[in-house]
Amino acid sequence: MDLKPPKRRTATIDNGETGEDLVLATLIGNGDDLGPLVRHAFEMGRPEPLVQQLKHLMKKKEVEIEDLCKTHYEEFIRAVDELRGVLVDAEELKSDLSSDNFRLQEVGSALLLKLEELLESYSIKKSVTEAIKMSRICIQVLELCVKCNKHLSQGQFYLALKAVDLVEKNYLQNIPVNKIKIVLEKAIPMIKAHIEKKVTAHFNEWLVHIRSSAKDIGQTAIGHAASARQRDEEMLERQRKAEEMNMAGMDFVYELDVDEVAEESVLKFDLTPLHRSYHIHTCLGLQEQFRDYYYKNRLLQLTSDLQIPSSQTFIESHRTYLAQIAGYFIVEDRVLRTSGGLLLDEQVETMWETTVAKVVLILDAQFVRMSTATHLLLVKDYITLLGATLRQYGYEVSSILEVLDKSRDKYHDLLLEDCRQEIENIICNDSCDQMIMKKELDYESNVLAFHLQPSDIMPAFPYIAPFSSMVPDSCRIVRSFIKGSSDYLSYGLNSNFYDVVRKYLDEILIDVLNEVVLNKVHSPALGESQVMQLAANISYLERACNFFLQYAAQLCGIPVRSVDRPRAGLTAKAILKTSRDEAYLALLTLVNSKLEEFMQLTENINWTSEEVVQNRNDYMNEVVCYLETLLSKGQQILPLDALYKVGSGALEHISSSIVAAFLSDSVKRFNANAVLVINNDLIMLESFADERFESTGLSEVYRDGSFRGCLVEARQLINLLSSSQPENFMNPVIRQRNYNALDHKKVSIICDKFKDSADSIFGSLSNRNTKTSSRKKSMDVLKKRLKDYN
Length: 790
Known about the structure:
This protein is mostly helical and 790 residues long. Helices cover 74% and strands 1% of the residues. Its main location: cytoplasm.
């Protein structure tokens, strides 16, 4: 039952009720506090009306309470009726469950009886099955015994042992009849002992025979490896030609010749006695004993084979020695693969490790004694054939080939030393003059052969190359080094030895060629033109690095396109680029030194001249002529970026020299006439800079730059000293626009030295004095503000 909040009610006025009664009824109806009203009633001496109203309200509330109780009573009666209905339903449900349980018990009793009968049937079936199984075992054992007796009577020992082995492994422990089991236990050892004696002698004869055949087996296998190598080289050569012709846009028909090789001809040796002996011993249960016997005897043979014959040198006997080892392990591989467990992988691995350790020691000692590359290459070639042969049989030959890696370093050291001597002779004797080629054949052998051509168009002859003769001569030596390195590294530890060739190629280019060239660059006897030619030569040697990589790729049998990747280049290329920059710095040092000889401004300029000179100084004519010659030479042989570096570096040095002259301690003071003289020289130099920047084609490459910009510091200084209002230098906007290259401290020092010429007798009557006085005042203001600023 929802209880609603009492609504605000208003007291009604009945006949005979006063206004106070109405107020009291209203307060009571609204549930307000009656304290003030009661106090007021008693104060007025009229409590009876209040009492009457309260009684009336009490009666009214009693009526409401009776109505509320009647309403809840009816709901409670209904709830009790519903609960009685639920109890009735529960009784009915209980009765249904009882009847269902009774029926289930009747059905379950019958099923339990059936289950007991089924379990009994299964027990009987199991007993019958076991009896049949025992009978079959006895029949099978007796049949095997009959077969064994037959094989023994016919001398077929292996088949007899197979029958005995089947009885022993599969039936002996499971025979249900004890008498049969006892007879078999006594007969089996006697049969095994009889057969063992018949097969041991044949195996001993085979051991002697197989050792004497090992050398021929090894030589035959190595011969087949050599033939396969020759076929691979021919195929790679055809592939290389096809690639070159394809790159040239020519059609090439690639033919694949397949020569059938009788692989089994390498393996013509009989292992039947070994297999028969091992299988019989296995059937006898003596396989471990036979394994030990075989392993120890073969290990003794191997120890004897690993001894170097003392009657011959290693160069004479290394082929026979290595062939014997190859034949031995070819036999062991066949035994391991076909004998069904006679040899373990660990045993073969142990024999191989022993052999490798011994051979490595021998090769190390022999290689130390070898002093010629021919002997190194001869032994290396046969060792790689041995490795190629045994690798086909699964042997790890990397340890032996690592010896070749050690000799590889020795071999390349000898090659590098020979190449160093040749390169030093070429570079030291080079005159640093541009190479002249009179015939097309000379152009092909010196330029095209090393991809040094600037374009694919054949030039007119005689052709003057931008490099000297040291470039193609050095390239020939490097090419021969690549060929020698490739010949030695082929068929070594790494089938892909391109990276190793590239490593040694980097070594000869960096440690030999680059070092010798840098020594020549820093030679004090060289002049500017020679250093410039060397810088140009280095740039062409850098370009030749691409040819060296392609040539190495061809010899290593990898696609040429794989060396064109960005990360596949030579480190030497970056080193040569650095050396080229170093040569440019050396050239700039020489150029700047020469410019300083021309520009002795403190001596060539009269800093306090009273006369206005309009003509240019002679030293500036010499500077311009020198720069003209330098840039003309550089334009012929240097790339544009290098030409820009040389030109901009020289002009920046001139600009710095002009500013340094003003700052020099030997210049105590100067006047406007000296500034005017330097301004005339600077104008001449700026005109030359603009003309050369355009004529050399640099303006098309460096659109945002110019040679004039290299003179900006000197120009801004001259403009400041020539300005009618030099104090504007302290204006941030004007300074950023017109004098952003000048330093405050330098300007302050220079301005302190700036003194106008003294006024002449009639100077006060001239207009010039007025301008000079105004500029002097502005200069004085600038000097003061610079001092305050600093």
